Amino acid sequence: MPGTTTTNPPQEEEELPKKNNNETMTTLDTLVVFYNRDKVIESDESPETETFAARCHCGNVNFTVTLPTSYLPLNAYICSCTLCRYTHGTFGSYHVSLPQGVAPEWTSNTLNLSVYKTPGSGAGGHGQRIFCPTCGAHNGHYEAWAGQWIIEPSLFDAPIFWRFRGIGFPNSAGDGGVLSWLPEVGGRKLTQVSMDHDFAPDYEAEVGADGGERLRAECKCGGVSFTIPRPGEKVKGDAYLRRYVSPTDPGKWKAFLDFCRDCRLVSSAHGVPWVLVPRTVLEPEVPPDLRFGTVKTYKSSEDVTRGFCGVCGATVFIKCKDRSPTEETEVLNIAVGILRAPEGAKAENWVTWRAGNPEWVEDAMDYDPEFVEAVVDGHREWAIEKYGEALDFDVM
Ligand SMILES: [Zn+2]
Ligand SMILES: [Zn+2]
Ligand SMILES: [Zn+2]
Question: Which pLDDT belongs to residue 8?
């Protein structure tokens, strides 16, 4: 399959993509920004190449890509469609389309991959996502209509060979999603590609048995599904748990972006958005070992256990020693990318963002400084414009 070329895009892509402002965008722009189609080699050239190595957190999945140096940097984009958000647990999937004719070379001794196939996605490959069955990291997919591999750049360590140029499905997030924090990257305004089926899902507010509001968290396949309540008396009356109530709104929880390397290599996203919620208030109650439904667990370090969906690969939880003083008062990180808030992907009616100080920024500045600087600045400016301040607060 790799290297073959078909010219018929899937049916839903036959219409010309449109920008957010409904201007029609030329297909050529799309093919260059999202598919790197301007990268071609004359057939009689034997180009100088460079090889880059990707590795998931647990090391089970390794692959390399070998690229002509004249192709570099490749364009990268974030896709914030529901398939990407709910299979990753982040604000979207981070993608680089390999130029036609370039395929990943799997370097693991044994090729041990999980494949999630979205119901109804047909044989085209777009709906088939490959991930590591041990740590959950997504590797990418083969886009059959384009004859191209789409890989996840966040699995590569430096040096980076891409630059972010686009956002796909911006309307799907409902509230702008991560695009609200990325007006530009490296001074370049991101190219947006929307399509007719790019609209926000219509989630209704949920109510619990006590009549209180609930927020649904659910991965793409539905194998992991639970609800989060508002902070109640049990939480506010506990000296430890009440630290996790928003400092500005007693009805909200604390949320933050995390750029640490461990999060990047299990989620395949440059940064993971987390909300902190006590384990025992979740419904159904999540067991202390995190194992229920299709959750698989993975220890990313001595004191940190992560939960991901074993069927669709979504990042779901972190349980760490530092937020677990006793079993009754454990506080979990829950991936914001799987939340189904009616107001949109940033769940602003439920969480307060620590927009003034994302976690582990210094780690990531050694990795992809152009992107990280853009989202850190954009996050802060968004908060100042919307809430009058960019907050910093304790998340431990
Ligand atoms: Zn997508
Ligand atoms: Zn792995
Ligand atoms: Zn799932």
Answer: 38
Centre of ligand 1 from the C-alpha of residue 82, in Å: 7
**Considering every ligand atom, which ligand is closest to the CA of 91?**
1
3 state SS for 157-220: CCCCCEEEEEEECHHHHCCCHHHHHCCEECCEECEEEECCCCCCCCCCCEECCCCCEEEEEECC
Signed CA dihedral, 15, 1, 153, 56: sign only:
positive
Reported as half-sphere exposure (CB side, CA atoms, 13 A), residue 65 has a value of 32
The Å distance, Cα 87 to ligand 1 centre, comes to 9
> Per the omega criterion (within 30 degrees of 0), is the bond before 284 cis?
yes
pLDDT attached to residue 25:
52
Say if CB 130 and CB 141 are below 8 A apart.
Answer: yes
Q: What are residue 130's phi and psi, to 5 degrees?
A: -105, 130
User: Nearest ligand to the C-alpha of residue 313?
Assistant: 3
- How many Å lie between the centroid of ligand 1 and the Cα of residue 61? 22
Burial level of 190, CB count in 10 A (0-12/13-18/19+)?
Answer: buried
Cα separation of 92 and 171, whole Å? 12
Question: Nearest 5°: phi and psi at 272?
Answer: -115, 130
Nearest-10 Cα torsion for 150, 152, 158, 159: 10
Tell me, what's the pLDDT at 119?
A: 80
The answer to whether 77 and 269 have CB atoms below 8 angstroms apart is: no
The DSSP call for residue 91 is S
- DSSP, collapsed to helix, strand or coil, labels residue 84 as helix
Which helix or strand (DSSP H or E) is residue 374 part of? helix 369-387
- Cα 267 from Cα 74, distance rounded (Å): 21
Which domains are present in the chain?
11-193 (2.170.150.70), 206-387 (2.170.150.70)
DSSP state, residue 349? T
Please name the residues in contact with 338: beta carbons below 8 A apart, sequence gap of 6 or more. 85, 86, 89, 217, 218, 219, 224, 314, 315, 316
Mean pLDDT by 10 residues, the chain (396 residues): 36 38 61 93 84 96 94 96 96 96 87 87 76 96 90 93 96 96 95 88 94 98 98 97 98 98 97 98 96 98 98 98 95 98 98 98 93 98 98 95
* Ligand closest in space to the Cα of 168: 1
Contact partners, residue 327, CB within 8 Å, separation at least 6? 288
Query: What per-residue confidence (pLDDT) applies to 23?
Result: 42
Could you give the CA distance from residue 297 to residue 289 in angstroms, rounded to a whole number? 8
